[in-house]
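Below is how a single chain appears once it has passed through the pipeline. First comes the sequence as given, then the structure the pipeline wrote out for it. We keep one example in the README because the format questions we get most often are answered faster by looking than by reading.
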Amino acid sequence: METVYLGCKKHLFIDYLLLERCRGVYIAVNRPKLTGEKCLVAEKPWESHRIGPYNSVWEDNGIYKMWYDAIASDGSRWLCYAESKDGVRWEKKNLGAVSFNRIKETNIVFPPEKTEVFEPGCVFIDTNPKCPRSERYKMICTYKPPGGEPGTWVFVSSDGVSWEPLSNKPSFRLSDTDNICFYDNRIGRYVAYVRVWAPLRKVGRCEFNDLKDWGEAQVVFSYDEEDLEHLDKDLFDAMDFYNSSAVKYPLAEDVYLMFPSAYYHYRREVAEKMGSTHPDNDGPMDIQFAVSRDGVHWTRHDRRPFIPLGKTGGWNGGCLYMSYGMIIHEDEIWLYYTGYDFTHGNYDVKRDKYKGVISRAILRLDGFTSLDAEYTGGEAITRPLIFTGEKLVINVETSAGGFLRIGLLDPDGKPIPGYITKDCDVINGNYIEKTVSWQGKTDLSKFANMPIRLHFKMKDCK
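Resulting structure:
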């Protein structure tokens, strides 16, 4: 069995990469707590139809920042900006950067004037060490500047408010619906996740050095036969994935996350009975979850919704979209998503007023997935691992009657005296960071840089 070099980095159980043998344990997807908070609602004239769904949320120098999508009743579309100190109450700052119908004090940051072709993608903070500070913020959008070429454009900013085009032409073809881009420090290149039609909506990926030229997209995430096989054909005639909201997890070197909105297409006659305004393109959408080690090969361990729809007719009862990015606060991850009371095609821009709610979901730190054992218990043995640290720290949760013990084995699977599971001081409780000990000993430096295996023995435990 091939040895895995871990160094001293954090490892998340998003798959079975490290595991050679398992009994009674499995990778589980953990759903976030939905707060129900209405962090942002539509209330301004330039938000008079709706806010969302294409938003970006980041912490930057101690300030929580959100760039969010807004549509007015005249059909014009805008990228707006808000700030927060606590992640719950958000201030729509009067920036004076872009006017709306002679209103000068707005929180609009782009485009500089009304245009027929504009749809926000994402805003990201460029971590490329070669990035000039004047271009620290990057904004991706579907756009056609006055007299210019329509396509996917990249804009740059020093403050996230005032934007300039990176080039005098688009970086990529027209690709609607929340294009995602970021600098991937694992590979030292930029990547983008875009829409591909083949034949329905799929997620494509581009990899490039030059933000001015993204090249061609490769399909990396799609609906499949299992999705289509389990559709209720009396209700739906298709299913695809609307957007990706793909992101690289900032606290682990090799963890990529995707929160695609699964779009279930009503049959035309079904949509018509519901009074849909667009019966050929209508249906509900909820948020699923996928994980990857490289951003190319994606796995869905559980196809049930990561964030489910709320009550029918409620603010989150029709369609859901995950915002790009996340806020890491102490031992929690805050995710933001937009909910609508209407399904994908059953709305009218002029008729429907002040729609959309951006809400917050809370997840345990590093807790997207976990290695779980049921009440009856189980165990797992890893492949040979090489590490370069002095101790083993774990993120663990057991029930009142659950436990975890970890033993050390040599590469051949033989127990190492003094460090077998019976020697492990039993772990019972809920810890974000728990140092493992064996009869009080925590120092593992003598095993560094040599292959060992870990033996997990666990019951009712994550």
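Helices lie at 225-229, 268-273.

See the next section for the split statistics.
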